[in-house]
Amino acid sequence: MTPFEMGRISAYLLKHRKIEFRKEKRGRHKDEHELAELLKDAPQESMTDLCELMNGYGFDLITLTTFDVSGIGSGERVFMLSRKPNVECPLLDLPRALERIEPAGGRTVQAKVWLTQFWLLHLDLIYTQRDRGADERNKWLDATFTKDALIEAMREHINEGVRRLNPETLADNEIYEVLTSEKGVSIDRYAKRFLDLMVDAFMLEDKGNGVYRQTLLSAVEMKENYGRILEPLMLADRERLPGKGFAGITEPLLVESVHGEGEAA
Amino acid sequence: MFLIDLSPLLKVSARLLDLHDSSRGPGASTQYQTEERPGLKDGRYVSIASEVLAALQDSGKQSGDEYASLDYVVLQVRETLDWAHELDVEFVLNVLSRPTELKLLQTDEESSHVIGDKETNLVEKAAHLSEYRLSRLGRKALAMATDNLDLAYIEGDVTKLLRALETGKLEQAMRFLDRLIDQLRTEQLALVSIIEKSSGGRRVLDSLFDDLENFEGTMRRAAELVNKAQAQVSVLARGAGPKNMDQDVPFGLVQDRVRELQRGIVGYSRRLSELASKSLSATSTSVPAPAFAKLALRMVVIPPNALQTDFILHEMGPVFPQLNYPMGTDWRHSIKPKTTKAAQSISLDLGEFSLPPEDRFLEWMGKNQTAFNTSIAEGPLTIQDAIKHWASAEGTESDFACVVAALTSPEEWLTIEGVQSVMDRTLTISALPGADAMHSSLSLAVISPILPEESQNDAI
Asked: In the beta sheet, which residues pair with residue A61?
């Protein structure tokens, strides 16, 4: 693999987050098959170099075959960039995602609230309600939900959960205010924006008729990153398990690691 | 007599029988109405059938396919199923020996037509006697029911592959490879699902593998056999294989598939070890899935700070690359040049070859001929002027040599008529880069024709 080819592959990967070597070429990006063949036939040293290059960008280059996960045919390969949980990738841009949720300027807080809440509820649909652990990558083909189910989940979350909280204990709580100011029409609008955003960011696939399915990339990142990113936040819910005492230090740990990474970058 | 399990045959043919028996007309609803299968709902007749077929198989082996009496069959069946009545067994034998006609659509290259197939009886009944034996289809059915696709027998399957490669039967080898890879993938993905499910402390079902250590040994031996198959492929690649090797199957394809199988077996063994270590560390069978909706509510009660939210979304949420950097490949094949493609020029490396002096002079003269002609036409061109014009300042040694050659051999290059070369003995000094040159005076001039006796000077 020449430096020029490595450059083309890394540029494509950064843009699309995956390169698939499939026997069926139809409906795929014209460069993808060519780059996939380069990757498939690349010598071990070149792959090591490419992996290190991607590590430098803050990604793990993961190769999956038919024996690793469902949805990959015999002789096919999928190469994908998964974000490293311990490194903040400088090439990724969160504000652009927030603008998709709330295009009006000066409403970043609202955008973050809706994005985070919808994101967690969609995970609830494809993990919690299916009794699926975060490591269960292999079940990605069955991880479908409908737009209506997501809207209903958010409506129930706000009406049955958030609105029943004691408002006196939540003074100046931005998240509470944003969610409870919803008058019945915002949920549909934000749900659409969220789903479109997730599709464009390669985390969900639009299967038509309001049905969405988790992508393999999303399942891979959940398996790779859940333990470092989200599990510490869950600890408080698992009071019966050993390790309860660590829940209290989650927040400082998280914040410190972000500070640390930021300074390093 | 070993136990025969007919349930796989029953399962695989149940839906096909429904389709065969369906009376849905063209254009009717696509919904399938669930058909009632009342029966006794106790599975007794299928159970008796298993014993009947096993008894007939046993009797056939002992007697060389002689018919067995009803009494013998009843006796054999009752050894295992003491509740089975003689009449039950006779009923089962009657059903199994009755040929049902199936209507099947056969398509060949030119047409398609429906044929009736009556060869469906699993048992043959002797004419006029209550004696029975297995039919050809019955034997096939038992072979299918006992065909063990368990991965524990992979060793034998890989041996078959090795033999096929050794005898150059690539087509057969490809069939084995396809089946093995497919089976290995199914088993491995099932194993992956179990391992993933057991992550987070869930206990793996104890009954999953009776003897994990033994199974790991099987996979290790299978891996060694695949290595041998790989070596055999290398032998074939060198052309040292059998002469009657199948030529229809692309050899590279076989190589790829053997490599894939090798990776699969190695991966499976690795996962078995992973499962074993996870089984040891498992603590509970009831670890719940992560409760994301609860976390969403907790985030309302105890809001995370902006840094935390950004970190979570940045690391796991939907994000885009920083900017859309244009890539060269974005424009590939989309921009066409306006001008036609320049003709290809052939670039030759002349190495140390240098032009002969005559060619160098002609080349130099070709560049300066017009200037010479103009100067001569405007008046006499003296050697001093020529040196000053072409060889001083930026001129080289080669230019100086060419000027001298031009002035002393005008007949070689002159293209205008009536030019005469005149030389006198006056010495003149001309300045050249890095040196001065002293020379006689020499000039070229256009003159009108003169008589020979009028000539005063030396003429060339």
From this structure: A81
Asked if B95 and B125 count as a contact pair (C-beta separation under 8 A), the reply is no
Least confident of A125-134, B19-28, B71-80, B433-442: B433-442
- The whole-number pLDDT of residue A220 equals 95
Cα distance between residue A196 and residue A51, in whole Å? 30
Q: Which amino acid is at B327?
A: M
Residues 220-259, chain B, touching A (beta carbon < 8 A): 256-257
Neighboring chain A residues of B321 at a CB cutoff of 8 Å? 14-15, 91-93
Q: Do A258 and B315 touch (CB under 8 A)?
A: no
Q: How many residues does chain A have?
A: 265
Distance CA B308, CA A165 (A): 23
Query: Given this model, what pLDDT does residue B386 score?
Result: 85
Q: A55-69, A101-115, B111-125, B445-459: which has the minimum mean pLDDT?
A: B445-459
Name the nearest CA neighbour of A102 among A189, A2, A166, A29. Answer: A189
User: B298 near A251, Cβ under 8 Å?
Assistant: no
- A-chain CB neighbours of B327 within 8 Å are 8, 11-12, 15
Residues in chain B: 460
Cβ contact, residue pair B299, A139, below 8 Å = no
Q: Tokens for B410?
A: 């005008």
Q: What are B99-107's contacts with CB under 8 Å, separation 24+? A: B102/B20, B103/B20
In which residue are the tokens 């992956």 written? B192
ipTM of the complex: 0.83
Q: B residues 126-185 near A, CB within 8 Å?
A: 178, 181-182, 184-185
What is the separation, in whole angstroms, between the first and last Cα of chain B?
Answer: 129
Higher-confidence residue: A210 or B143? A210
Residues of A in contact with B263 (CB under 8 A): 65, 67
Residue B450: its pLDDT value, please? Answer: 52
Q: Who contacts B336 (Cβ-Cβ below 8 Å, separation ≥6)? A: none
B16 CA: distance to closest CA in chain A (Å): 26
CA distance A132 to A144: 13
pLDDT in tens, A119-140: 999 999 999 999 898 999 988 9
A124 burial via Cβ count (<10 Å: 0-12, 13-18, 19+): buried
Q: Is B336 on the interface with A (CB under 8 A)?
A: no
Quickly list H helices, B5-125: 7-21, 44-63, 70-80, 86-96
Query: Of B90-104, B259-273, B320-334, B412-426, which one has max mean pLDDT?
Result: B90-104
| Chain A, nearest residue to B194 by Cα | A136
B contact residues 290-309, partner A, Cβ 8 Å cutoff: 290-301, 303-309
Q: Are A235 and A247 in contact (CB under 8 A)?
A: yes
